[in-house]
Amino acid sequence: MLVIQNGWLVTPQGAAFGDMAVDCGRIAALGARLSPAPQDDVLDASGLWVFPGFIDAHTHFDMGNDLAHTADDFETGTRAALMGGTTCVVDFATQERGGTLSDALAQWHRKAQGRCSCHYAFHMAITDWNERTRAELADLLAAGVSTFKLYMAYDALRVNDGELYDVLVSTARLGGLVGVHCENGDLVNAGVRRERQSDAGVQGHPRSRPAAVEAEAVERLLRIAQVADCPVKVVHLSTREGLEAVRRARGRGQCVRVETCPQYLLLSDERYRRPDGANYVCSPPLRPASDREALVKALLEGEIDTIATDHCSYTSAQKAAAGRDFSRIPNGLPGVEHRAVAMMSAFVATGRMDAAAMCRLLSENPAREMGMYPCKGALRVGSDADVVLWDPNAAGVLTAQGQWQNTDYTPYEGLRVSGGVRHVLLGGRWAVRDGRLIAPNLGSYVARRQPQL
Ligand code: URP
Ligand code: ZN
Ligand code: ZN
């Protein structure tokens, strides 16, 4: 048994000073003062915040497309995640057109198995909707995949409105949840054609997909979900206008879950004017400061349910290979390692949010939404002992040189941060101790139940 003493135990209800006992991979006891037996290990957590391990429900590791293959695979990506306090990621297995969901799931298991330093689970991205795909859904839920993803953009991946409706209905019947990439694919294609003619370089990227392209897709998705009478999740929301569409749908009584990402809360589209602008190409793109401010306000007012990273990393050489053709730059940013420290620094250390609210955004809400609660995302007796001991007094600067992510840059280069990971327990075992990785590869697959919305 391990007894963690004198920590601030953080839950969405608040922080309570106390002790926690861990035994056989689970939380065995919680209390104001626990009495360790002589044979127990004891950790003095004075001055530390004890969180249920953070969950990142949006990563892309070991993913290829016609432009490039991601720099992080499951080995490097989950290691970076763990070092940043993330004890579970939910990555996207993606159906090949003409292929089955079960083949895609088997392929993603092969990518991840035996390589993960934090726990992992999979969403299934459906790209080829037909009767065979529909017939597979129940098997997916039985295999622990209870969340799905649809794309409204990217020609190789997207579904049409009728298919979107049908997937929403079919998955909701089984208790699943669909997250949707909301950009109007036809408008993106038209914007790309237009901007390529003007030879705008990297700045053509945000111009090719302005806020209205996201907002139209969010509005349309939510109207489709209204007709289908199904809950739905908007992933990586980046605009004020998209947020307003969410508010309207919620006002009609719809269940809409909203995820945003650190890049949309901290960065803005001026990055595309820098010489290394290609490194910031992601979809949806970084937005003007007014969108960022609207999202921050919504976050602080409790309108956003989860913060995930959409980690999809490439090296700057991979980004630069496109030259002036912005449409050939692989889309995505690294971030899985820096989510908690960046968010804590921006919002908790500055007093704009308390640690309890951050715990809800990074741990409890994703665990509930992903069908893992209360095994994960909770400091409760019986919950898995995936635990982060956070030092609120640590200080540092984020740099590419000091990171674990397998790329040569970070969008947060030079960011001064307050707080940091001191220790991480994964299933009750020491994975990170005093900021050092001591046990890689402890992660295992998490078969999930139905989302709790
Ligand atoms: O640019 C991004 N976000 N790439 C990853 C794939 C996606 O759209 O989520
Ligand atoms: Zn997306
Ligand atoms: Zn994504």
Summarize the structure.
This protein has 13 helices and 17 strands. The chain has 453 residues and is an alpha/beta fold. Strands 1, 2, 3, 4, 5, 14, 15, 16 and 17 form a 9-stranded mixed sheet that branches.
Distinctive features:
alpha/beta, binds N-(aminocarbonyl)-beta-alanine, 17 strands, 9-stranded mixed sheet, globular, binds zinc ion, about 450 residues, about 30% helix
Descriptive account of the structure:
Helix 4 crosses helix 7 and helix 7 packs parallel to helix 8. The mean pLDDT is about 100. The chain contains 13 helices and 17 strands. It is α/β, with parallel strands linked by helices and about 450 residues long. Helix content is about 30%, strand content about 25%. The structure holds N-(aminocarbonyl)-beta-alanine and zinc ion (ZN) (2 copies). The site of N-(aminocarbonyl)-beta-alanine has 8 residues, from loops.
Which kinds of small molecule does this entry bind, naming each only once? N-(aminocarbonyl)-beta-alanine, zinc ion
Specify the overall morphology: globular
Rg value: 21 Å
Q: Order of helices and strands, N to C?
A: EEEEEEHEHEHEHEHHHEHEHHEHHHEEEE
Structural class assignment: alpha/beta
Percent helix: 25-40%
Average pLDDT confidence is 98
Low-pLDDT runs: none
**Count of beta strands:** 17
Described by strand count, sense and barrel closure, the largest sheet is: 9 strands, mixed
Number of helices: 13
What proportion strand?
A: 15-25%
End-to-end C-alpha gap: 34 Å
